[in-house]
Amino acid sequence: MERVPERIETEADLRDGAGVLVARDARFAPILSAVGPLPLRRRADGFGALVAAIAGQQVSTASAAAILSRLEAAGLTEEAAMAAAPDAALRACGLSRPKMRYLRALAAARLDYGALRAASTAEVVAALTAQPGIGRWTAEIYASFALGHADVFAAGDLALQVAAQRAFGLSARPAEREMRAMAEGWSPVRAVAARALWAYYRLDRQREGVL
C-alpha cells in the first residue's frame, strides 16, 4: 500500500503521492511518465511568500520574477519595510496602485504565520482571503507551496485548466467549478495532481515551441 503523505516536504513525499494519485486516476500514469520527476516547488512561508504571490497576480511569470527581484533588492519583503515604503519606491519595483494597497494592508494585518503552519487548508484559505487582494487562488497557492499541504488544488488556475483539457482530451477547457469537482477524485493528494498538470502544461508549451 502506498504511503499517503500529509505534507509535501521532500522528493520522497512527491514520489509517494504520485503513486497514490495514479491509483486514484490511471490517466496520470502517462502524464507522469512524460514529465519525469515532479518539481518540489517549496518556498519559505510568511509575509515574503504572500508578497511574491500578490506581486505575481495577473502578470507573466517573467514579469512576476522581475518585480519580486526588485522588491527583494529594495528590502521590501518584510512587513515593517513594506508598511513604511513610499509610493515611489513601490512603483519603481513595478507594483500597480492596487497591489501597493494590498501589500500595505497585509503588512498592517500582522498575520500569525506560525499559527497558519498548523491550520487546515480551509482555515488557511479563510484567514488569507479575509485580507484585501488575496483571493482563493492566492491562498491555495500559499497552502500548497509555502505550507506543503498535500490535498489542496488551485482550481482557478488557467494553466491547470488548459493542461487538464489537453491531457485528458476534453472538448473544452474546464471552468473552475468543473476543475474543483474533477480534483475531488484526486484527494488526498490533489497538490501532487496540480504539480503534474503544471509540469504537463510546460511540456506541452515546449512541444509547441512556446516559451
Offer a few descriptive terms.
211 residues; mainly alpha; Endonuclease Iii, domain 2; Endonuclease III, domain 1; 2 domains; 13 helices; globular
What does this molecule look like?
This protein is mostly helical. The chain has two domains: 11-41 and 152-207, Endonuclease Iii, domain 2; 47-146, Endonuclease III, domain 1 (Orthogonal Bundle), CATH 1.10.340. 62% of the residues lie in helices and 0% in strands. It is built from 13 helices and no strands. Helix 2 crosses helix 13 (190-207) and helix 11 packs across helix 13 (190-207). The termini are far apart.
**Shape from CA axes?**
globular
Number of helices: 13
* Overall radius of gyration: 18 Å
Estimate the strand proportion: under 5%
SSE ordering: HHHHHHHHHHHHH
Specify the CATH homologous superfamily of the largest domain. Answer: Hypothetical protein, domain 2
CATH class descriptor name of the largest domain: Mainly Alpha
Number of domains: 2
Count of extended strands: 0
What CATH calls the topology of the largest domain is Endonuclease III, domain 1
CATH architecture of the largest domain: Orthogonal Bundle
Report the oligomer. Answer: single chain
Mean pLDDT: 94
- In the predicted model, the low-confidence regions spanning at least 5 consecutive residues are none
- Report, as a whole number of angstroms, the end-to-end distance: 39 Å
Tell me the structural class.
mainly alpha
| Largest β-sheet summary | none
Helix percent band? 55-70%
